[in-house]
From TrEMBL:
It is a single-pass membrane protein; Single-pass type II membrane protein. Keywords: Glycoprotein, Methyltransferase, Signal-anchor, Transferase, Transmembrane. The keyword Methyltransferase applies. This is S-adenosyl-L-methionine-dependent methyltransferase. GO terms for molecular function: methyltransferase activity. InterPro entries: Prob_Methyltransferase, Put_SAM_MeTrfase, SAM-dependent_MTases_sf. Pfam families: Methyltransf_29 (PF03141).
Amino acid sequence: MGLTMGLNLVLLVAMVATNILALYHLTASSFQPPTSPKAPHPVPDVLLHQLHTIRATVNKLTRLQQSPGSDTPASTTKPTVPSDLLLYSHLAPIASACHNHPELLHKYMSYIPFSLCPSDSDLAETLILRGCHPLPRRRCFSRTPQKPTSSLPHNPFPSSLPSSNVIWDKYSCKSFDCLNRLNPNMGFDLSQESSKFMSYKTELDLPIPQLMQIVKSAKSVLRLGLDVGGGTGTFAARMKLHNVTVVSTTMNVAAPYSEAVALRGLVPLHVPLQQRLPLFDGVVDLVRCGRAINRWIPLTMMEFLFYDVDRVLRGGGYLWIDQFFSKRVDLEKVYAPLIGKFGYKKVKWAIANKTDAAGLKNGEVYLTALLQKPLSR
C-alpha cells in the first residue's frame, strides 16, 4: 500500500513539474521579437528508415496482441500443420502437386514458347493423375489432326466415330475400328452402346425410362447432370435424347475417351477422380457414379469424392451409384456407413453377387443405389 502511494506521488510531482516548465517556455517566447521562419531541415534517410521499421514493428505487435477477453497470452510461434491436412493435400491436392514430380514436370515444361506444343498427351495424363492439375504449360499452340472431317454428327449415336478427328500418336491403335477389334467393351462400338441404360435385366439395372418415371412421381425434375467416370459418354448421350444436359468426367487412359465424348456432341470434363469437381455448389439435379468408382479407390479419396458430389448436388437432387463393387464385408462395414452419413433417402438399394472368377474368389458384390438428397438441411 505504501509503495503504491509513493509511486502515485512521484507521478504527480513529475506532472506538475512538466506543466510548470512548459508554461515557462511559452511565457518566455511571447516576449521575444518575431524572427523570420527558417526552412525546415530535411529528414535524413536513415531516420526515415528507422521510423518505418518502428511503425512496422508496432503494427505487427498490434496484430499479435492478445484479443480482448482472452486469458491466455498471445503466441508468436508458427502453428503446426495437422498431419491429416498434409495427407489430404496429397490425395486431393489443395493447390497443385506438380512440385512433387520434378522430373516429369521438367520434361513437360521443356518446350519452345510461341510454337506448336509437343505431342506428349500421355505425359500430361500422367501428371494429372498424380495431382498436377491444372497443368502449368501455357504459351504454346495446341496441335490439331492432319485431315479432320468437317461433317460432325449431331446424333449422339452415330453409326461410327470419325477417326480422322483424333491425334493417335501416343496410342497403339490408330482408329476407333482398331479399338473395337481390340476390346468391344471399351465403349467405342456405338451399335453396342445404343442399347445401354434402356432395359431391365437384373435388380442392379436402372433403365432411364424408370429413372425418369421415379423423378416425375416425386414431382421433381432433371435438367442438369454429371456423370463421374463417364467413359465414352453413353449415359450423357442417352440423357440428351430426354432433353437433359449431362457432362462427363473423362481421362484418356490408353484410349481417346475425351475425344470420343466430344465427337458425339457432348461435353467431356478432363479431370481425375481426386480433383475437385469444376462445378458450383448445388447446381446439378443428378450425379451418376459409374463403374470407375469401386473398391480400388483409396477410402479417403472416395470420401472426398462423395463430399464433393454432395456439394454440387442441389437439394432434392439424386445420386445414382451404378454397380459399385466391393467385398461384401467392406460394403457392410465401410462403404454403406460412408454413404449413409449423408442422410440421403434410399429410393433404390440393390445388392447382388459378382459372379466372375475374381468376384467369387474374393466374395465381392455389386451395389446399385439411387439416393435423394434432402431438400434442406
